[in-house]
Amino acid sequence: MNARTFREGILVGLLGAAIIAAWFFVVDAVAGRPFFTPAMLGSAFFWGLRDPLQVQITMQTVLAYSMAHVLSLVLVGLIASAVASQVERTPSTLFLAIVLFAAFEFGFYIVVAVLGQPLLGALAWWSVAASNAVAAAGMGYALWRLRPNLRARLAKQPLGVPVDESSDTYRKL
């Protein structure tokens, strides 16, 4: 991974973490319980809490979970940036990137369902799905803007379809 890809990955990961944090801050504030979601998830993640009624919102729990959340999103950003770099070099790998994204999203929901089963009532699925979709869109858009060569390569090869230089078939797309 080169320095550019590394920097972009960190930036994109921080953006995704900020989007999700802002989303849940608003959701929690509207519900009258600011910082409930990171406190609940931090209590479950670090201390094994399984009853959302037992959640105590403490700065220690909110900060600990927030740091774990930021680090995980930075890792996702680094992977996304590396994949975008690969697609930029080899547009036909776009299909692999789409499958990887779908597998990651599916895996995320499986992990949430299995590990967070006792807490799912306190954390609405629609909210988790929406925050994840908004963050993914924001991260993808940021990579799209940060990589003009990616846009140019995909404009020449829509959806990464290989161009056969001896035929005009793909050029007409």
Question: Could you characterize what this model shows?
Answer:
- Helix content is 72%, strand content 0%.
- It has one domain.
- Helix 1 runs antiparallel to helix 5, helix 2 crosses helix 3 and helix 3 crosses helix 5.
- It has 6 helices and no strands.
Q: How is this structure best summarized?
A:
This protein has one domain (3-160). With 173 residues, the protein is mainly α.
Which sheet architecture does the biggest sheet show? none
Radius of gyration: 19 Å
Helix content: over 70%
Distance between the termini: 32 Å
- Model regions low in confidence, pLDDT < 50 over at least 5 residues: none
Query: Mean pLDDT, as a whole number?
Result: 86
Shape: elongated
How does the helix and strand content classify structurally? mainly alpha
Key descriptive features of the protein:
single chain, 173 residues, mainly alpha, 6 helices, 72% helix
Per-chain topology:
Blueprint: H1 3-30, H2 36-47, H3 59-89, H4 94-115, H5 125-146, H6 148-156
Helix pairs in contact: 1-3, 1-5, 2-3, 3-5, 3-6
